[in-house]
Amino acid sequence: MIFSNKPVQYLLVTLLAFSSSINFASTPVDSVSVKHENVAVAEGKSHAESVGHEIEKEFNASELINSHIGDSHDFHIADWDGHPISMSLPIILWTNNGLEIFSSAKFHHDNSGEHVVDINGQKLVRYKEIIFYADKFETMTADQKNTGAFAFDARPLDFSITKNVFSMLMSAIVLFFLFFAVARSYKKNPNAPKGLAGFLEPLVTYVRDEIAIPNIGPKKYAKYMPYLLTIFFFIWINNLIGLIPFFPFSSNLTGNIYFTFVMAFITFVVTTLSGNKTYWGHIFNTPGVPVWLAPIMIPVEIIGMLTKPFALMIRLFANITAGHIIILSLVSLIFIFKSIAIGPVAGAFVLFMSVLEMLVAALQAYVFTLLSALFIGQAVEEHDHH
Questions:
Q1: Could you report the per-residue pLDDT of 147-193, keeping only the tens digit for each?
Q2: Peptide bond into 248 cis (omega under 30)
Q3: pLDDT surpasses 80 at 83
């Protein structure tokens, strides 16, 4: 079975994510608010004839791209009359006073560290999606704030349901019910799958016949099929979620280095625990190597074990993130040049890149699954040295 036989756990966590309500902000975003200034209409006219002129903040492409590919504590849905409409997600912190749970709406969309939130006597601020203790944040330098992810003494432990976590839970639940429906369909029609089962069967068969069996072997592949199917569909559906630019999608989960690290680490653990005596013998006693060279080859082989999951992590992260950056950069050209003429050109390139990213979404899921199967196959392979 691909997923856990305890679906109630998924449902409980998802209810927690959905428990936060949609928040219509009463104040504009501090860092990107539009400022109004009174300016003279023309030289020689009286001050009384001055009109309110809207001066917009200069467009910052880097800020736009970073905000879209990064994680956040809420979903930005739209803007209405200068005010953002968003879905606030639950913030879960382990502070000096213990566990604290509250809505991200309390920060009023402030991400600059200016708005202070009082939670049971503790003052908190949010800066670039990192929550700090207000008193310690005030004493930090600009460099310390920008590298705040490592300022563990100045911030509580954050276990919040962020946008990426929300998308991960949503995709897990979707996949669970997806394959639950397929299992029921096979139970009713074991010899003639229809509908959803008929669509997914070729994909499952492809993973089995083209990935698992060739790399792990016909005798041992079945043991690892649940894992390979899980990572294939889980990565694929999250890649597609990142391409949909509206709520409840638009997250960049597979472009998050922490997510790809965990996925690669799981493959590393499965590979390591599956290693047979031949596999470990090649690492600590490499065949055909002179005795005097063996002490040098051992650390080389161990480094090789670690570089495999590292390559998995970087490959998925870099490809997905690069695709998002390219699409957002093309969209930014319209605002940078402030020209209608550039719109159709940029739009055509965005459409092309979006279609290409749909292919990359499936390709990267395939590559991650293929390399995982290859590494597992190397660990369980039996060698004949006669």
A1: 776 777 889 999 999 999 999 999 999 999 988 888 888 888 777 77
A2: yes
A3: no
Can you read off the two tokens belonging to residue 189?
A: 């029609």
Number of other residues whose CB lies within 10 A of the CB of residue 28: 16
For the chain, report the end-to-end CA distance as a whole number of angstroms.
39
Selection from 79, 110, 73 nearest residue 92 by Cα:
73
For residue 334, CA distances in Å to 64, 84, 340, 345 come to: 13, 22, 7, 9
- Residue 45 CB neighbour total at 10 angstroms: 10
Q: What is the per-residue pLDDT across 220-240, written as a single tens digit (0 to 9) for each?
A: 999 999 999 999 999 999 999
Which of 362, 270, 289 shows the shortest CA–CA distance to 320?
A: 362
Sign, CA dihedral 77-80-82-83, equals negative
Rg of the chain over Cα atoms, rounded to whole angstroms, equals 26
Give CA–CA dist 201/197, Å, rounded.
6
Taken as a whole, the chain contains a residue count of 386
Q: What is residue 384's predicted lDDT score, i.e. its pLDDT?
A: 56
Long-range contacts from 247-251, C-beta under 8 angstroms, 24+ separation: 247/75, 247/77, 247/87, 248/75, 248/87, 248/166, 248/167, 248/170, 249/167, 250/68, 250/75, 250/163, 251/71, 251/163, 251/164, 251/166, 251/167
Give the number of other CB atoms < 10 A from CB of residue 254: 30
Q: What is the pLDDT of residue 349?
A: 83
How is 232-290 classified by DSSP, letter by letter?
HHHHHHHHHHTT--STT----GGG-HHHHHHHHHHHHHHHHHH--HHHHHHHHS-TT--
| Mean of per-residue pLDDT scores for the chain | 80
Position 57 confidence tier, pLDDT thresholds 50, 70, 90: low
SS (H, E, C) 14-83: HHHHHCCCEEECCCCCCCCCCEEEEECCCCCCCHHHCEEEEECCCCCHHHHHHHHHCCCCEEEEEEECCE
Which two structure tokens, joined as six digits, stand for 199? 């669509």
